[in-house]
Write a structure and sequence with these properties.
Length: 116
């Protein structure tokens, strides 16, 4: 999918409104418009990378940054004591519906296993 058609790129460009939770020079985190848990935040790199399959060796620092931010965001959202789940869907069979790499941070209710 081209960046022009990517909903997350359009959110990053300010074309589509979102509720910001966190932002720095590399990533933007916002509340999911269709939450699957009481707390559902999406952590998105500002650089368009379609999926984890498309991340290159040069993206290792960005990926580490995103994973390190997930607990920071979860704690900011009050999930430190109860716990939270992080999810990266990669590919259609895994449930990826937006072709821009992102980390889901979910919590606020017990999570079942296995998921979906």
């Amino acid at each position: 999918m081209s960046e022009d058609n990517c909903i997350f790129c359009r959110i990053l460009a300010g074309e589509i409104p979102s509720t910001k939770v966190y932002e720095d020079r590399l990533v933007y985190a916002f509340r999911d418009a269709n939450p699957q848990a009481p707390t559902h935040v999406l952590l998105v790199p500002k650089e368009h990378i379609e999926s984890l399959n498309d991340a290159a060796q040069g993206d290792e620092a960005l990926l580490g940054h995103m994973l390190r931010l997930a607990p920071k965001i979860a704690n900011q959202e009050g999930l430190a004591d109860s716990g939270f789940r992080t999810v990266i869907n990669t590919g259609g069979d895994a449930g990826q519906t937006v072709w821009h790499l992102h980390v889901h941070v979910l919590g606020g209710r017990p999570m079942t296993w296995p998921p979906g």
